[in-house]
Fold this sequence. Notes:
By secondary structure, the protein is α+β, with helices and mostly antiparallel strands. Helix content is 26%, strand content 43%. It has three helices and eight strands, in the order H-H-E-E-E-H-E-E-E-E-E.
Amino acid sequence: MTVWEMIGTKLLAASAVTAIVGANVFHGDKPAGLGLPTVNYFEVSNGLVGQGVVEIAHYQISCRAETPGGAQDLAHAVAVVFHNMKETVSTFDVNAGSVLDKFLMKEPDTDTYHVPVDIRLAFDASENT
């Protein structure tokens, strides 16, 4: 299991997230023409520390809804999933997970409210592929 597969698995297993978006959770860009609310996520950066043993993956999880409150509620549900995360998801071991930031913005071209939730995940690069 890869880190992006683990994130998708974790999001789809979170009842607070799926109660809002159903199965509208996507890796990469949000599919065009898809209704709201939705979640899409992608890698922002990735680094190795500890002589290349510990990998630090930084992902943005974009929470979109038609109202500011809807986007914020979704972002809160997503943040709870990854806050202080230390667990195994399927075969993927996360040593430490944290939420770095989240803030509300309006996308003027679509009148969509968007809260990007930035997360950081640390894991043993030699054990997870």
